[in-house]
Structure formats: structure tokens, C-alpha cells
Amino acid sequence: MKLSHFFTVIILPKETPNSKLYSSVEKLLAPFDESLQVPSYEQECYCIRSEIVKDIQEQLNKEFGTFDSARERFREAHPEFHSVESHLPGEFDNELEEERRRLWQREVLDDRDKLERELLATLKKSPIPDCSDCKGTGIVRTEYNPDSKWDYWRVGGRWDGDIKNESRPSSDGGFNFANDHEEVSNNCDITDFLFENQIIPFAIVTPDGKWHEKGKMGWWALVSDEKDGKDWKEMALFIYNKYKGHLAVGCDLHI
Fold first, then answer.
1. Within the chain, how many helices (H) and strands (E) appear?
2. How confident is the model over 97-132, as pLDDT tens digits?
3. pTM assigned to the model
4. What ranges do the domains of the chain cover?
């Protein structure tokens, strides 16, 4: 299990009839399906990166300590965020969570990221000679979708009603597995409403088929290339305004 769920808004043409809302969302999300098979192409073998990552991680841990030790130091320095860590998404103060993420980035990640970039630029990239996949060439062929963003999705889900700024009753400890948490009618509004209420998801898919995101969501809820919260908020509001009067459907995506 990868355990990465994230709130995504799908923007649809304003003339989309109610009977076509679900299928229209399905169509816009289809190109980003992890299981979508694409024509075979060449890419760098994972063995190259695995060796580099191993070397980099060792040097980062030597310089800054492990992430576990960093988390412990951060928790000791900021007891005000303990309540955030014990809640499910949507159950805590978004502003408090944003502040926690901002401080974590500044106090922990910025220096690590800087050194990581420096090491990536200097370390020699070499394949493993006896790699079973690339046979030491460093190149493999794959049919994996390079645009993959999700392996499972549903309307609403953990964010049932959020797009309408509604606090709907949750179940299953906030996971909302039941079908009544997947009603399109409870998870659809116009972009004007999202703009006015500043409803900011993790990702947005626009009618032209383009994917916009705060960062690249990976396994175990690890996010890379993450935008500053303020910058992403401005971008999301810009998109809502650009597609003023359009329909928007809130979805729960998993990768």
C-alpha cells in the first residue's frame, strides 16, 4: 500500500449536463492513470538512481542526522503542532497545518535540499554492472505512463463536501468508504464559489486536460518539488478565475 491520498479539483465546461459529470471527470483523469500502458520507450535504469540515492542519503544523514531524529527535534521545538500530527486530513486547522509545513521546510528541508542538489550535480552516475534489468547499460525500456498521477480515485471520499465548504458527517474514522460519500451532487459547485471561499486542493485538472499541482505526490504522502503555500494558493485562485463560471468536482485521488 502506498497510502497517499490527496484532494483534487476537476474543472469541467460550464455546459456539462449533470448526467455527464462523472464520465467527464473520468475522461479528464484518464491520461494520468498509473496503469495506462504507453508505447515502449527508453529511460534511465532505476539502478543508477538507487546507487546515487544511497550515497546521498548517507551523506545527508551524516550532516543533518536521520529524518526520525529531525522529526523528534522539530516536535520538541514546536509542541504547538502536536495536535495536528494526531488528526486525519480535514480534521485540523488548515492554517496551523500550513504553518507547521512552512517551518518544517525552513528549519529542516531547505538545508537538506540544498546539499542534495549539490551532491546530485557532483556525484558520478553509474549503473550497477550486474543489474538484472539493464545488464549494466543504465538504460531500460518501459511502458509505464510517464504522466501517471493516480492509481485509484473517487468523487468526494475523504474530502466529501469540502468543495462546497460543507462539513458533512464522516464515517470509518474519516476514510469515508461508503458510497454515500461519493455523491457528485455533494461534491460539485461552480468555480466562482471556490474562488470566493478560497478552497485550495492539492491538484487541479483543467478542461484543456492539463494537470496543475502543489507538488509531486509520491508514495507514503511524500511530496517533492513542493510549491510555497502562498504561491500555490495564488495559482489555484488564478485558475478558478480563468475558468470562471465553470463546474468543479472534488475528488479523492490515491497514488
1. 8, 10
2. 788 888 998 999 999 989 988 888 887 778 999 999
3. 0.72
4. 5-39+146-254, 41-142
